[in-house]
Specification:
Distance between the termini: 38 Å
CATH topology of the largest domain: Rossmann fold
Strand order of the largest sheet: 2-1-3-4-9-8-7-5-6
Bound molecules: xanthosine-5'-monophosphate
CATH superfamily of the largest domain: HUPs
CATH class of the largest domain: Alpha Beta
Number of strands: 18
CATH architecture of the largest domain: 3-Layer(aba) Sandwich
Helix content: 25-40%
Oligomer: single chain
Number of helices: 15
Length: 514
């Protein structure tokens, strides 16, 4: 998708590259990340308003250091180098970078040496910045001036004498750099002349017109899961092409209480009438009978999903496209500084579909971060309870019912899950955790109810905090809440006489139990 104005972030492998892109978008300008060795003709095609060179773990003087063509510096586009980016600029323009005696890490005071530069509009002197580097500039390039310094870095900020090419030794994108957002804002608006056209509204308008153009009169199918990403993708498509979109929802019998009904009512409200609801509960549960191995469960569910989906799609006549709610982190997760040859992960739950069905993939959200998808969802009028939903795994309750799966166990799981989520919402903590759910353990334990001895099931509560599900910590929920949830589950859910709280983090555990 072409954007009116965009900032190109060239990735040299810093752990903060995504954060840079995100900050820029928060400031109202579209930005995208590309590997550092993107061909210069592709950069010309993107025609960015500015280019940011990210940090990275390498040293410019090493033989395998990722370098760029100096021609990029002659594109007449403003450039901002951050940390490694600064060192690269220094190197390319004939300065010298050396390993510092002391690695500089953490806070530093930055002293501004000029009040004239647009990059430093409204920046205090000194101002707190955050450093993380082992190399430093020993000799600044001849055509450059120093705009600011810290005690250990005499060239904290440099700029070209006549061109808008800047280098920062510190990281403006991290929250620890107090006025970092102002420096980035100055770069965008004062140096690059951006207007700030990146909003959920502009994204929606833009997407709708380009989707219409691309799809023409063809039919498009999508698998709707009820989760945020697939819902937002489907509603966007529905706005663009109306009845040409055929959203297919498969009830696999492994959903939570009311989930199928909720998706149906969302569909009624937000889609044209082509919504297809497939009740495949029996099919899935029959194939899962007596299966206890987690990987086997996942495999069966994946295969069965493809069959049911193909079945449903084959009834729709000639279909050309498949929509998926792939997000930006899925796309760039494995773009590494090794460059374009590195595999780009294509993450989806309906793996295999495009190959077997010869459908062309449409991924309207592939440029967005999760929080941006949520804002786009709001813009499209989706209700908060869909937009703010916790993630739910494709294999559903199957991976939360340890051991074999039966209707009776699924009922216990559904009833306990509803109670946990209800109480979490009542305590106003639902939005503070990444995910919360219950797990039915494959053990029975002894209890006493009234005067009777019981021998029944144990439920584990799982609640975690996380940024991206790659790592997670168990949520420190208040004891009062845990007490209430435990009491309610034991009293209200038949077949449960014990509740435990999972206090494991990821790694070494995972979020789901299977
Ligand atoms: P784990 O258990 O690996 O889960 O720590 C990380 C995140 O991924 C979700 N998850 C899945 N999501 N299909 C999905 O769409 C799956 O097969 C699947 N397995 C786990 C999990 O709920 C958590 O958010």
């Amino acid at each position: 998708m072409m954007h009116d104005e965009s900032i190109l972030v060239l990735d040299f492998g810093s752990q903060y590259t995504q954060l840079i892109a995100r900050r820029i978008r928060e400031l109202g300008v579209y930005s995208e990340i590309k590997p550092f060795n993107i061909p210069i003709d592709d950069i010309r095609l993107i025609s960015p308003a500015g280019i940011i060179l990210s940090g990275g773990p390498s040293s410019v003087y090493q033989s395998e250091a990722p370098l760029i063509d100096k021609e990029i510096m002659e594109l007449d586009v403003p450039i901002l180098g951050i940390c490694y980016g600064l060192q690269l600029i220094t190197h390319l323009f004939g300065g010298q970078v050396i390993g510092a005696d002391h690695r500089e890490y953490g806070h530093a005071d930055l002293y501004i040496e000029t009040t004239q530069d647009p990059l430093l509009n409204a920046i205090d002197s000194p101002t707190h910045v955050w450093m993380s580097h082992g190399d430093k500039i020993a000799r600044k390039p001849p055509d450059f001036r120093t705009l600011a310094h810290t005690r250990n870095s005499p060239h904290g900020i440099i700029r070209h004498q006549s061109k808008p090419i800047f280098g920062l030794q510190f990281h403006p994108e991290v929250a620890h750099t107090k006025q970092g957002h102002i420096i980035l804002k100055n770069f965008l608006y004062e140096v690059c002349g951006c207007k700030g056209s990146w909003t959920p509204h502009s994204f929606v308008e833009h997407s709708i017109s380009s989707l219409r153009e691309k799809i023409g009169n063809e039919k498009v199918i999508c698998a709707l899961s009820g989760g945020v990403d697939s819902s937002v993708a489907a509603v966007l498509l529905s706005r663009a092409i109306g009845r040409q979109l055929i959203p297919i929802f498969i009830d696999n019998g492994l959903l939570r209480t009311n989930e199928a009904e909720e998706v149906q009512s969302m569909a009624a409200k937000h889609f044209s009438t082509n919504f297809r609801f497939v009740d495949a509960r029996e099919r899935f549960l029959r194939r899962l009978q007596h299966v206890t191995d987690p990987e086997k469960k996942r495999k069966i569910i994946g295969e069965e999903f493809i069959r049911v989906f193909e079945d449903a799609a084959s009834r729709e006549g000639e279909v050309r496209y498949l929509v998926q709610g792939t997000l930006y982190p899925d796309v760039i997760e494995s773009i590494s500084t090794k460059g374009p040859s590195a595999v780009i992960k294509s993450h989806h739950n309906v793996g295999g579909l495009p190959q077997t069905m010869k459908l062309t993939l449409i991924e309207p959200l592939r440029e967005l971060f999760k929080d941006e998808v949520r804002r786009v969802g709001s813009e499209l009028g989706l209700p908060d309870h869909i937009i703010g939903r916790h993630p739910f795994p494709g294999p559903g309750l199957a991976v939360r019912t340890l051991g074999d799966i039966t209707e009776q166990k699924l009922t216990i799981l559904r009833q306990s899950d509803v109670i946990f989520i209800e109480e979490l919402r009542a305590a106003d903590l639902y939005n503070d955790v990444w995910q919360a759910f219950t797990v039915l353990l494959p053990v029975q334990t002894v209890g006493v109810m009234g005067d009777e001895r019981t021998y029944e099931n144990a439920i584990a509560l799982r609640a975690v905090t996380s940024q991206d599900a790659m790592t997670a910590d168990w949520a420190q929920l208040p004891y009062d809440l845990l007490k209430k949830v435990s009491n309610r589950i034991i009293n209200e859910v038949k077949g449960v006489n014990r509740v435990v709280y999972d206090i494991s983090s990821k790694p070494p555990s995972t979020i789901e139990w299977e």
